Every structure is written in structure tokens, then in C-alpha cells.
Amino acid sequence: MNFLKALFGGKAKTPEEEKKDSEVHDFNVLKYDGKQALVQGDTKFAVKCLTHALDIKDDPETRDYLSQALIREGDLLKAYEHLQKLSETEPDNIKIYMRMANVSFMMEDYNAMANSCEKALLVDKDMPELMYLYAQACIGLGDTSNAVAMLTKAINLREDYGDAYLLRGETLLEDGNLKDAEEDAEWLMEHHADIEEVLLLNARLEKAKGNADKAIKIYGRVIDINPFSIEAYTERATVKLEQGDQAGHDEDMQKVNEISPEVNEEDIERKMEQKYKDNNPYGF
Q: Which region is the signal sequence (predicted)?
């Protein structure tokens, strides 16, 4: 072929050019296969393909796919390292910082989470979802005052931000501020009365106020919505025991023992899947 090219005036490729063409081909194949494997749920193969692709070429899109695959695999530290590199390439991409914050949250590294949120704030200081993430970091660091402030700002920016109302209500209740927690609980019941977490907040609030019968009734509503709610059964059992209902306590705890292993495994998978979906820097 090279002889024919030379004979008819075509320029033969040098070994360096042929090597470059081969690398481009290999990179494209590995990137495509890795992306397809990720979409199909074969994360181990995705990690393998995408890692080899990055060995050939430093490509932000490929690194993003790899970070997603690593999160799915539970290799959070490596995922975070790749996200750090992405943030250096795309310093104004707020979704990268938010993904970093989510990964830090899963690792329970709240300092790193707060740092990612602070960097994101330099890009957009008025994003409600970012305020929510920062509040989660503050709660992890034990700084509930700043957490409440961040959640209040998030709500001011988005008046229907139910998740922010819920987290603020939970935080206020944990701090013993029943009055303000009740205001958030009332708003949530008005707008999201059939949500399990909203009912749990209300049940805990009634328990904290000493209204055992109301709390037990609301825990029952939680169980009607989710018959596998370990929290509802466990907390209702405690209230029943405090009321002298040993049989009711034992019945609820027996139910907890029956459903606990299955629910714990499913809950871990659900949380990992949700965190994977939460933020995607490149919008794929």
C-alpha cells in the first residue's frame, strides 16, 4: 500500500502517524464501549474501558463517565479524585462541585463536602439546591445554626422547596426548637401530607410534645404508606413501651426483625442509585 501511494504520488504515513491513528481508533472504541457498558449497568467493564481510554487521552467527557461508573461501583474516593481533575478542567461547572459534594456526603467527609459547596458558591451564590447541600455539610459538621440559615435562604429563593422545609424542620426538632419545627411541619402537611418523611417528622414532633396517642396514630399512617418502614415501627414501639404497652412494643419490634435485613440492603442500593442520578456535570 505504501509502495502504491509512493508510485501514484500519495504520501505514505510515518510510523508516528500510524501510531497516532491507532490510538485515536482505540480511544474511540474504548470510550464508546465504556459508555454503553455504563448505560447497560455493567459498571465493572465500564471502569475497565474508560480507564484504558483515559490512559490514551485525557478527555473530560470520558473522565465524567468514569466518575459515574466508579460511584456505581462504590469506589467513592477514586470517583472524587476524578471529579477533582474535572473541576480543574471546568472550574465554572457548578454541577461538578455538586457531584463532589454528593460523593463527599456518601463518604461522610463533611469538610470536603463543605469545601466543594464553597467553590460552587463562587460560581452561583443563589442556587437553592446548593444551599441545601451546604446545609447537609453543616449538619454533618455539627453546625446546625448555619445549616438552618442555609435552608432558610434556600426556601427564600424557592418558596416551594419541600426538601429544604423537611431538613430544616428535622434540624430544628433535633435542636429542641419545637415551635419553629412545628411551623415547617405544618407547611409540609399542607403541601405534602402523604410523604413518608413528612409524616415521620410530624410523628416525632408529637412525641417530643408529649402527645403519645397522636404520635402513634401518625406512625400508623407511615406504615400504611410504607409497610417496610423500620423507623416507623421502631419509634412507635418506643412510644408504646413508654405508655406501658409491652405487647404492642414487642409486636412492632418483631416486625422490625422480620423486615430489617431485606430493607437495609434495598435502602443502600436505592441511596447509591439516587446519588448517582443526582448530578451529572455534562448533562448526559
A: none
